[in-house]
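Contributing new records

If you add data, match the layout below exactly. Sequence lines come first and carry their own label; structure lines follow with theirs. Keep one chain per record. Anything else will be rejected by the validation script.
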Amino acid sequence: MSRQGQESSRRGARAYRAGAGGRWRSWGRHHRAMSLDSARRLLRHPLSSLLTMLAIAIALVLPAGLWLALDGARLLDAELDESATLTVYLADRVDSGEAGRIEEALGAQEGVAATRLITAAEGMAEFQQSLGLEDALARLPGNPLPASVVVSPLDPSPEAVRRLADALEDMNGVEEVRLDLAWLERLRHLAEVGQRVTLALAVLFGMGVLLVVGNTIRLAVENRRQEIEVVTLIGATHPFVRRPFLYSGAWYGLGGGVLAWGLLTLGGGWLSGPVSALAASYGASFSLPALGVGGSATLLACSTLLGWLGAWIAVSRHLAQIRPR
């Protein structure tokens, strides 16, 4: 190839690169312009825009609030798991020395995190203190309570605790192993029901957000129908026409997410005092969980995505029906 041809080829390559870069810059400028223009259009009608965002926020508050309630239930479940113990009652013939050896054997079993020996005398003292019947129980001819060992399991799940109880009950010197897992199983079942209800409500109210945004964008498309027909006549593509409406839907979703975040924060602050007082009356410390940074980001991202998706469905459906005259 001649030198002139090579220089021409280089100039052509540079021109192509410049043209591709110019298209990318133009694409970015158009996105920026459409996002600002759609925000200005929403601000021109603040009341209607606020009502739409408020409807989206109300649709998001209930599933988000249930999600927070389940998060609090999971924290409570973890605390209850830590308090899940087995009580191993020893035989009456076991003396104090043998009780200590049995406790060591119990602690060496697989799946046992910790053990605590309660002698017969200590058990009677605790029983008297809890019932307030010191004088009446003191008249008994002997101590009818056996020694016992409180066992903390490594795995507090009902299945693992049940297996551990069966293994401990077969040991020498053990009379009975007492455990009450009914409350733990009920709590787990309630948590599973709550998760499914929350998921179902999230889907239903998410569809509600799509309908709210879709109906709002549909009216905006109808109001700008003539403008859309004109730009379509001069060669505008569907993505070009769709872009400002997609940004409007995203702004609606983001505004609804911010309002939902505010409602959840206010509601949590309003309920935190009574909930803490109720927990304190039972001798426990419990506070309502907050959204936090991760939860807030998830809420805003989901609301923005739902707004964008609702706008995309509405615009795509109506663009297919618009024909330039």
